[in-house]
Amino acid sequence: MQTIREWANRLSLWGEWVSVVGVIIMVAITCIDVIGAKLFLLPVPGYIEVVSLIQVATVVFAVAATQRYGGHISVEMFVAKFPKRIRAIIKALVSLLCLVIFALLIYEGIGLGNAYREAGEVTATVKFPFYPFAYAFSVALIPIAMMMVADFIVAIKEALS
Predict the structure, then answer these.
(1) pLDDT tens, residue by residue, 94-147
(2) Is 100 in contact with 144 (CB distance < 8 Å)?
(3) For residues 148 and 93, what is the distance between their CA atoms, to the nearest angstrom?
(4) Paired strand residues for 122
């Protein structure tokens, strides 16, 4: 179980760096576009498309890091008053539900990537293919699913003890 958590943390750290690089690239492209458009009348072709695709990748890769840091919103004011065993059971159920949701998102992201690849879907201006971003979406959610597995196992152990 600890190994699952360690791998999830490593993958989410990698995803965090992907997000950081994505933000830097978005800032750089925006600066180049503004300077090029205002000073030289040469805007970056497909600027909005490129920034939009990078933004999607940046956000989805940051989700795992947010989960690792415990930064997602949770409401525990009622659950905190329950006995320890009931809290653990609720945590196990929530973890299991989240695992199912993220597993479905990963599966659908792969299916969407396959559909985009087979159809040859590309952006309108710069003709970037969509499928790598759909696959990246699925890959970025794997550490979260791993964290949910680890949380589920811990909660079950707490409920049974």
Answers:
(1) 999 999 999 999 999 999 999 999 999 999 999 999 999 999 999 999 999 999
(2) no
(3) 11
(4) 129
